[in-house]
Amino acid sequence: MRQCSIVYRENHLLNIDIPPRFNQSFEVKTVKEHQEVTLSCDAHGESPLTVSWKRYQRPIDRSVLSRYVLREHVHPNGLKSQLSIPSVLRADSGLFSCEAVNDYGREEKSIQLIVQAPPESPEGMQLLQVTSRQITFSWTAPSSGNSPITGYIVVYNQSRSECFLIYSACNEV
């Protein structure tokens, strides 16, 4: 909060120029794959304000990323800019930032977007040993989908003519 006290002895004009600012400089947003997400930057400061968006410190080119929708709303204290992704993909996870600029300064806000998705199947499954009561095998852990893997489902069936192994990873997405 800014406070200013003035004692008038003569006729003077007081101008207070306000640089852009955000209420918070960092935010984490978690969403499930294929849901809509909206990243918001509500900049307060002296008009005119402009807001630009970046992903990993590179300007977002909306002609290339046509899935992104940008909305802006001017309000009495500044400008609210929103970047929406109607159906997020795991590849959309990353660090986004918005920068507000006016004649008196600039301010940046960062938003870490985490898109949770079902984990991928394990890779490199190797059957190491089969006995009458036990099967031993190994695999390489898959991508977790940005949430903890809580278990694996393994199905093994051996008949006289065929043998198959089905496996997948699970989490609580």
TrEMBL record:
One cellular-component annotation, GO: plasma membrane
A Gene Ontology molecular function term of the record: axon guidance receptor activity
Pfam family, one: fn3
Keyword Disulfide bond applies: yes
Residue ranges annotated for the Fibronectin type-III domain, each copy included: 118-173
Keyword Transmembrane helix part of the UniProt annotation: no
SUPFAM superfamilies: Fibronectin type III (SSF49265), Immunoglobulin (SSF48726)
Taxonomy, superkingdom: Eukaryota
Any one biological process term the GO annotation gives: synapse organization
Annotated protein name in UniProt: Down syndrome cell adhesion molecule
Origin species: Trichonephila clavata (Joro spider)
Gene field: X975_10983
